[in-house]
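Forum > Structural Biology > Help requests

Title: Can anyone predict the 3D structure of Leucine-rich receptor-like kinase family protein, putative?

Hi all, first post here. I have the sequence for Leucine-rich receptor-like kinase family protein, putative but no way to get a structure on my laptop. I'd be grateful if someone could post the C-alpha cells.
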Amino acid sequence: MSLPDFSCFPFLETLSLRNTNVVSPFPKSFVHLSSLSILDLGFNQLNGSQPLFEITKLVSLKTLYLSHNNLSGPFPHTIGQLSDLNELRLSSNKLNSTINETHLSNLSELKYFDVNQNSLSFNLSSNWVPPFKLETLLASSCTLGPKFPAWLKYQRGITYLNISNCGISDSFPKWFGNLSSSLTYLDISHNKLNGPLPKSLQSLNVNYDDIWVWDFSFNNLNGSVPPFPKLYALFLSNNMFTGSLSSFCTSSSQNLIHLDLSSNMLVGPLPDCWEKFQSLRVLNLAENNFSGKVPKSLGALGQIESLHLNNNNFSGEIPSLILCQKLKLIDVGDNNLQGSLPMWLGHHLHQLIVLRLRANKFQGSIPTSMCNLSLLQILDLSQNNITGGIPQCFSHIVALSNLKSPRFIFHYESVTVSDDKGWYEIGIDSYYEIGYINDKEILTLKGYSREYETNLGYWTTIDLSCNHLTGEIPQSITKLVALAGLNLSWNNLTGFIPSNIGHMERLESLDFSRNHISGRMPTSFSNLTFLSYMDLSFNNLEGKIPLCTQLQSFGPSTYAGNNRLCGPPLINLCPDDVISPNRSYDKTVTSEDEDKLITFGFYVSLGLGFLIGFWGVCGTLVIKTSWRHAYFKFFKNINEWIHVTLEVFVNRLKKRFQVED
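Reply #1:
Sure, ran it for you. C-alpha cells for Leucine-rich receptor-like kinase family protein, putative below:
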C-alpha cells in the first residue's frame, strides 16, 4: 500500500507501519511531519534511494527503523541533519556506497547503529574520534577492513558488537581488551584476523547475570585457548589454535551453553572435568588432534543435546552416556574407538536422531536395542568390524517407517533477547537470538560425502557399508518407506534382493555393491522413481534388468561384475532378445515376397481407379447443367432449413423465459 496523506496530523510523534506492505514513493505531505520522533517502516517493500533521502528531512527523528526493505543506492549525506537521532536501523537492505566522517560527524546522540547485511564500506581515518558513544554496532557483511577499525577504541560503553564478514585481515589491537565489561555480544567471525587473542579479555569484570556470547570463528587466530570470563556461548572453530585444554577446568566459563572448538589444531587428552558444565547443550570438539580416552565426566552432562567428537584420535571405548538422555546427535566417527556397540544407546537415549560411529574399530553385532530408537533418522556404522546380520527389527524405527513422522530442525538457540529499546512506546515486542547454532553433519550419500546443515533434519539414511555383515537382506527392511538413503556395500551379504524393495519409494540413493547377492532384480524396482544413485556392481545377479526409465538411466558401471545380468543399459543381450539366423532369413524372404506385390500393374490400376472415381462424379456436374443446378439447390435448401429451425427454437426459448418472469 502507499502511505496516506498525513497533512491532517502535523503534530504526530510516533508512526509504526511495520510489515504492512508499504511501497514507495512517499506523499509530499510526509516531510511536513515535523514533530515525528519515532518512525518504524520495517519489513515493507520500500525500494530505491528516495525513501531514505525523504526521511532525513524529518529533523526531529530519534528512532528510525527501516530494516528488511529493498532500499538501495548511497548512504545519504543528509543523514547528518538528524542530530537527535538515537537509533538507526537499516539492516537487510541493498545500500551500496561509502560511509565517511561527514555522514556521521553530526550524530552525537547515536546509540544504536545497525547496517547489517548491506554492501556499505566504512572509510574512516585511523585517528578519527566519533562524536557518539555507541551501545550497539551491527555491521555484518559491510566492509570495515582491512585494518581493524581504530575508531572503535572510543566506544567503551558498547554492549553489542557484530563486525563479522567485514574483510578485516589484521591482528587484535592492544586496546581491544579495554572495551566495556558490559560487552555482552561479540561477533568477529568470518574475517582474516591473525595472531593470538588478547590476554586482557580474561580480566574483564563481568556481571554474573550478564548474557555473554563471543564468536571468533572462521579466522586465522593462533596460540593457545586463553581462559575466558563467564560466557554462555563461545565459538572458536575454524582457526589455528594449538596446545591442549589442560587448563580448561580452571576456566570461569562454567555457565557455558554452547562450546565450539572444532577445526583447530588442539592436541592431547581432554580434561576430565566436564561435570562442572551442567548447562552445556552443544559441545563440538571435532576435527582436532585430541587423543586418549573419551572422559567419563562427559556422561554427567544432563542437558547435552549435541556431541561432536569426530575426526580426532580418541581410543578405548565410549563411556556410558545413560544420564545424557536429551542427546539428539552423537558423532564420534573417524577415531580409533573400539569395543562392542553400546547396548545402552537404545535403552536410554530415546531422543536420539543422528548416530554416527563410522570409521572406528567397533566389533560384534548390531544390538537389537537400537531398534528402540524410534526417532532415529540417520544411522552410520560404516567402516568398522561389525559382524552378524542386519536386525529384522529395524522396521520398528518409526522415523524411518512412517512418512508422517515429524522431522527435527537442528537449531539450538543460546539466548533469546528482548529488544525493547525505543519500541516500548509503540507497543512492539522484538525478540532475537544471539549465539545460536545450526548443527551440521557430514553424510555419505549418492556416492560422495558432503556437509548438510539447514536440511540435515530432513534426511533419513542407514549406512552399514564396509563391515563384515553376513546373511540375507531382511525382507522387513522394505518397510522403511521413509528412508532416502541405504548403503549396504562392501559386506558379505548373500541371498536375494527383497522382492518388495519397490515399497521404499522415497529412496534416492541405494548401494548394494561388493556383496554376494544373487538372483534376479525384482520388477518392483520400477517403483523407485526418486532413485538418482544406484550401485549393484560386483554381486552374482542374473537375468534381465527390468525395463523402466529409472534403471536404464544408470550407466553400465552400476551393474558391472554381474556377468549373468543382461539387457539395457548393458551391451550383452538376453537370450529372448537374440535373433537367430533362421528367423532373420525368414524375415528377409517375407519382406521380398511383400515387395513382389507392388508391380507395374499395381500403379496402372491405382491411376485408373482415381480417374474413374473422380471424373465419374465431378465430370457429370461440369457437363450436365440440370444436374449441377439440382446439386447446388439441394445444399441451399438444407442450409435454409437449418436456419429456420434455429430461429424457431430461439423464439420459443425467449417466450418461455418471459412467462417464467
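The first helix runs from residue 50 to 55. The CA atoms of residues 182 and 207 lie 8 Å apart.
Shout if anything looks off.
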